[in-house]
Design brief:
Mean pLDDT: 83
Distance between the termini: 36 Å
Helix content: 40-55%
Radius of gyration: 13 Å
Order of helices and strands: HHEEH
Length: about 60
């Protein structure tokens, strides 16, 4: 399994297909490891409010 470089939050924010909903879904349901890519997050670590805060931060980096 070849590891690709991780994009910055700014790169993610500026992707045309990224929305608040898509980021929330990705953060809430996806976990990346070296064995299975992607896999379902077994135990959500962030609260809904924390997830929303992370999504808002990432989207605040979007260039207008």
């Amino acid at each position: 399994l070849r590891q690709l470089p991780t994009p910055s939050f700014e790169e993610i924010a500026n992707r045309a297909d990224v929305t608040q909903q898509s980021l929330q879904r990705f953060i809430s349901t996806t976990h990346w490891d070296n064995k299975t890519v992607p896999m379902t997050m077994p135990d959500q670590m962030l609260t809904k409010q924390e997830t929303t805060a992370v999504v808002r931060y990432i989207l605040s980096l979007r260039k207008h």
